[in-house]
Prior knowledge:
Blueprint: E1 2-3, E2 16-20, E3 23-30, E4 33-38, E5 46-49, E6 52-54, E7 59-65, E8 71-79, E9 84-87, H1 94-97, H2 105-108, H3 110-113, E10 114-115, E11 121-122, E12 127-128, E13 134-135, H4 139-143, H5 147-155, H6 160-168, H7 178-186, E14 192-194, E15 209-211, H8 237-241, H9 245-248, H10 254-257, H11 278-281, H12 285-289, H13 291-295, H14 306-310, E16 315-317, E17 320-322, H15 332-338, H16 343-347, H17 353-363, H18 367-383, H19 390-398, H20 403-414, H21 421-429, H22 436-445, H23 453-463, H24 469-481, H25 489-508, H26 513-525, H27 529-542, H28 549-559, H29 562-570, H30 579-595, H31 609-623, H32 627-640, H33 647-660, H34 664-674, H35 678-681, H36 684-696, H37 700-713, H38 718-730, H39 734-747, H40 752-765, H41 768-787
Antiparallel strand pairs: 1-6, 2-3, 3-4, 4-5, 6-7, 7-8, 8-9, 10-13, 11-12, 14-15, 16-17
Amino acid sequence: xxxxxxxxxxxxxxxxxxxxxxxxxxxxxxxxxxxxxxxxxxxxxxxxxxxxxxxxxxxxxxxxxxxxxxxxxxxxxxxxxxxxxxxxxxxxxxxxxxxxxxxxxxxxxxxxxxxxxxxxxxxxxxxxxxxxxxxxxxxxxxxxxxxxxxxxxxxxxxxxxxxxxxxxxxxxxxxxxxxxxxxxxxxxxxxxxxxxxxxxxxxxxxxxxxxxxxxxxxxxxxxxxxxxxxxxxxxxxxxxxxxxxxxxxxxxxxxxxxxxxxxxxxxxxxxxxxxxxxxxxxxxxxxxxxxxxxxxxxxxxxxxxxxxxxxxxxxxxxxxxxxxxxxxxxxxxxxxxxxxxxxxxxxxxxxxxxxxxxxxxxxxxxxxxxxxxxxxxxxxxxxxxxxxxxxxxxxxxxxxxxxxxxxxxxxxxxxxxxxxxxxxxxxxxxxxxxxxxxxxxxxxxxxxxxxxxxxxxxxxxxxxxxxxxxxxxxxxxxxxxxxxxxxxxxxxxxxxxxxxxxxxxxxxxxxxxxxxxxxxxxxxxxxxxxxxxxxxxxxxxxxxxxxxxxxxxxxxxxxxxxxxxxxxxxxxxxxxxxxxxxxxxxxxxxxxxxxxxxxxxxxxxxxxxxxxxxxxxxxxxxxxxxxxxxxxxxxxxxxxxxxxxxxxxxxxxxxxxxxxxxxxxxxxxxxxxxxxxxxxxxxxxxxxxxxxxxxxxxxxxxxxxxxxxxxxxxxxxxxxxxxxxxxxxxxxxxxxxxxxxxxxxxxxxxxxxxxxxxxxxxxxxxxxxxxxxxxxxxxxxxxxxxxx
Length: 788
């Protein structure tokens, strides 16, 4: 990135009027200044002075500063290779474009395209005051702080001791171990989420970043990853290298091959040319000495180029193809089954993948190919929620030769099968994995049942002691989601510290509405209502369409501000996805307001008013599935007034909370104590919680018998049929389970748990087409949720 000048600007600003994506733009230059006019932002023509250029090899983007300090990429972009104007969204950078014609550089680009940059977003004013030391990549970006090095150099007396001191005062990536060396480049050359600012060379990447995992992404025709886990888009070279055997076995780093890292134009480095095998032969000497017998091509043909076969141009972006840095082998099987390019057919374009497969089979058995084919099959099956993927995923997770990203992807997919005991146990075992990425993904992927939560909590607490900060944060997020409240001792301090790390991340992403929504949920679950309200209001300020109303109302209700809670909910129309939850919460607010009576003489209007307020607050949290907080409210309310009119309902809800929190023995005792009460016998939540408890404690036959009575009493209850399906499935009565799940969906079409169960049932019955239809419904459902 550079200031715009006659030296840095490459585009033809004499072109005048441009039509790009049916929109009209105008470009011009005058007195050494460059201007672009657009009408996308306001509907009226607005001319901007180009302040910065971004890119000088494939594409050149033009940036200007808008009111509020937003530095944006203007849509007209200069295609350097074709000497033509194109729209920014046609530049082939799916990761950054995301459907927005104006990328905000301060939000998503600054961390790589400027050095020692600080976003400095003021949420109150909605203003950026972004600062940086240098545009582009400066020395300290790769070598760390240089002041001490410079001072020692200025004062040094010639000799070996001085040279040693100088070396110790600066980071040289070539002298770091392979992991830390490649992390210097990975700070930008990886598709990652930023968890903390301030990465410096030599630091642990996993204290600051986590890669964006494919299993978390919605389905896309322009995915960042191929189905076998290799990167598909540009600027992801580090995550590809970390999959390679050159890195995993040979300790190769970025600077092993890029020995002229200060020149960004790699075409200036002759040893990186396709026809030069010298770099590879330094490690693979035997192959280099007789390359034709290895390649089955003549020595001087492109087929004997190491990088043509093992680094094909299979990644893309900026309207160009880039070399695949996973240094893999051609796998025509994956081309046939999954559409993944292979090196053979990228060269022999007049031949098909079947031809390439036959030729490779005639040369060698292809063990490496078979492993990559199994990986692509497993990930594809897992994305379709097919339980048949589990054995292959377990194999991938257990194989260190796949590298951290591939193994983390496997554990992430295993987490999507929480009801499979083998998959669930594998996720738990991954908590102790030697690689921090696997541990962090495992902590975020674990999905415990109610009966498993009590046993899981100590294992998650152990991850709060992890040396990697992203693992600590992932563990804290999982604990908060389970309803774990602050606790004493050293681990309690670690829990508080990990939550503080999450708060700092939320502050770093103060300009991201979705991040603020997630932070609001986190703070609400952790009992920090002030921060929850602040984050949710911030998200709404950034994006007025953000669905924050119900969460805000829950936070206000916990604080006792019922008027603010009501106001937050009343604006929701009937067609809003939050409407049903809002109406339930409004009813609870109305009940609390009705039962409030003004105090006289500063005293409570009647004994037990505080207890009733706790009960009502517990109900609000119970309906929001915050079972840990709800349980605390119910127990404290019952302790004060055990015979109140609402006490029976509080005991019922308390029993359900115990079951949902996995405290099975206490839950069963509470349920048995309620068995003779009419309110308990007619409470569907309690009856289904008892069914869940029986099923999860190995008494599926007893659960099935109880369900008969539940369904007889509530024949229109979709969740009762869902539980009948689940219990029958566990009893291996698969056809009956399918019928029950289908009835649940008939009664309540928007019931994702039933659709998810049907995927597995249909697979077991061999009804593949119907299983795929259910999996597609689930993907669409989750996409609709994300859009809100």
